[in-house]
Amino acid sequence: MALYRAAPWQKPLSLALLLAALAVPTVLTALDQAFYIGFATRVLIFALAASSLNLVLGFGGMVSLGHAAFLGAGAYVAAICQQAGINEALIAFPLAMGVAGLFALVVGAVSLRTRGVYFIMITLAFAQMAYYLFVSARSWGGDDGLPLNGRMTLGGLPLASDDALFYAALLALVAAMALFGRLVDARFGRVLQAIRENETRMEALGYLVFRFRLVAFVLSGMGAGLAGALLANLTGLASPNLLQWTQSGTLLVMVIIGGVGYLYGGVVGAVVLLMLEEMLVGFTAHWHIVLGLLLLAVVLFAPRGVAALFGPTRGNDHG
Amino acid sequence: MAEALLEVSRLSRRFGAVDALKEVDFNVTAGEVHALIGPNGAGKTTFIHHVSGALQPDSGRIRFAGHDVTTLSMHRRVSAGMARSYQITNIFPGLSALDNVALAVQGRNDAGSSFRFWRPVGREAALFEEAKGYLEQVGLQGKDGAAAGMLSHGEQRALELAMVLATRPKLLLLDEPMAGTGPEESARMVELIEQLARRVTILLVEHDMAAVFRLADRISVLVNGQLICTGTPEEVRNDAAVRRAYLGDHL
Questions:
Q1: Half-sphere exposure of residue B189, counting CA atoms within 13 Å on the CB side?
Q2: Is A2 close to B96, i.e. CB distance below 8 A?
Q3: Which of A22, A188, B74, B203 supports an S-S bond with B53, CB 3.0-4.6 Å?
């Protein structure tokens, strides 16, 4: 795999999509479908979480099966903040990112000493530990989770309306994508991808492989933590279910469907998966069967993900 | 006598019941090309692994440029000025030739921090200019954009050499640079190493005896993990023990 290089049309396309996204609440309200604004917000939040995972999975080559832990940690920090009387997102969200990042630092410091299947298992083990910690934490609601009493404010502006939270989530996603987009084409991102390609070579060139991996892992955890804090505001609950390993699996599936190692792979995957779920749930309670077939189809017909179908965004594709 | 750039003393390593290296005393003088030869399985690559830091010895010391590096990790030895090529070509096959070398330049201490998250590398012209220079030095001009994995075997070996050069080493560890190359590529590689030898000290492991005797200032012979002889090519050629153990029918 070559180093990531944005396709020339990527910038105009993302700007166009951003403009379209800005109009979503207005359009949905005009169509009398305001109910779906919450759904659209959910898509944005999972796009952020999946993109964060894609940074380590796609660009760093680290298959983490524990990212739900960082998502859940972010959600709980938001809920605990509110319980403690902090209702300002400008304080709670950075705190959520900080705690999730710190957690990722610990998990990464241990698990990044292993490779392959062992790495997958250790990240999973950490996430399960966190899950059981929150399930058994009585003061934080245990099994039932920790509810929020209404949404927070962002810089004094209330996020109570669905529109406001939608725009807050959009802002977070755009900021994260801007950072990730710059990062993968900057020195750090090139080192990260080169480590994915040939770890021994990078060591022999004098790079401290572990440190680069760890920084990426922490950044990724912070992104997932921010998504968790937003999600808690959306659903009004920090639930231990957010930390379930199935949640980590869902994030992985999103990235795989969308395109591992494509900048927008996480976004595409979140949109496709959540929209499918939304549509299929209406038809049958066994929508997971259809999802399984879809996964098979992706692996068979678009093994590099849906984002890959939209032309070359990788260096080796332009010859 | 000139100063020793690399000084290995009483280096030993066992793998299970096998003495891979037994009390090896070995040094490389600054400026020379020192070849290490020996039959298959003599421990040459194991020795290089220990010098480069990929493996840790059971006992013995390694000093490099006046410092004890025995316990230093591989990347620290690289920072100190040691660079190696691999017996089996070790490059980034998916990356362009230029990116391969640019990463090597970027990894150098004096090239600035690699923890830059925002500035596109496209704006770091110096990185790529310098990388192009190394590609030219090894005869790969015009191959900048080619995926490294698509280059011919000889070109890949040359590319690896360009990467190694880009780390601006004091000591170059070349592990069988001629391995698997055709006669023509092999001749070009010998020329290339001859040119490099004017600027950098080289420890060369190689099976191609014609190349070794043409390039080396000194030769050491390793047999069953033990160093049986070190000397000028002439001395080694005439050494009875060497002839018995190894060279006999080669010379």
A1: 28
A2: yes
A3: B74
User: Which of chain B's residues have a Cβ under 8 Å away from the Cβ of A190?
Assistant: 99, 103, 106, 121
pLDDT at B21 over 80: yes
ipTM, 2 dp = 0.89
Q: What pLDDT sits at residue A135?
A: 95
Q: Please, what are the averages of pLDDT over each run of 10 residues along chain A (319 residues)?
A: 87 94 97 96 98 97 96 98 96 98 98 95 97 94 94 96 97 98 96 96 93 98 98 97 95 94 95 92 84 86 83 42
Which helix (H) or strand (E) is A233 found in, with range? helix A209-235
Tokens in use for B130? 């310098």
The whole model's pTM is what? Answer: 0.89
Q: How many CB atoms lie within 10 A of CB B142?
A: 10
Count CB atoms within 10 A of the CB of residue A171.
Answer: 12
Dist. CA B35–CA B211, nearest whole Å = 10
8 Å CB contact of B108 and A206: yes
Q: Please list every residue in chain B whose beta carbon sits closer than 8 Å to the beta carbon of residue A184.
A: none
Chain A contact present for B119, CB below 8 A: yes
- Give residue limits of the domains in chain A: 36-249
Are the Cβ atoms of B120 and A185 closer than 8 angstroms? yes
- The distance of B121 to chain A (nearest Cα, Å) reads 5
* B121 touches A: beta carbon within 8 Å: yes
For the segment B176-209, what is each residue's pLDDT rounded down to a tens digit? 988 888 888 888 889 989 988 988 999 999 988 9
Out of B95, B109, B119, the one facing A2 most closely (by C-beta) is B95
Most distant CA pair in chain B, distance: 63
| Residue indicated by tokens 């020793």 | B4
At B138, list the tokens: 């090894």
**Among the listed residues A221, A260, A235, A246, the one whose alpha carbon sits nearest the alpha carbon of residue A54:** A260
**Residue A181, min C-alpha distance to chain B (Å):** 9
CB A102 within 8 A of CB A96: no
Are the Cβ atoms of A182 and B167 closer than 8 angstroms? no
Give which of B69, B75, B134, B161 to mutate to test A binding, by max A Cβ within 10 Å: B75
pLDDT at residue B84, rounded to an integer: 86
Measured CA distances, B132 to A15, A109, A119, B128, B185 (Å): 35, 37, 37, 6, 21
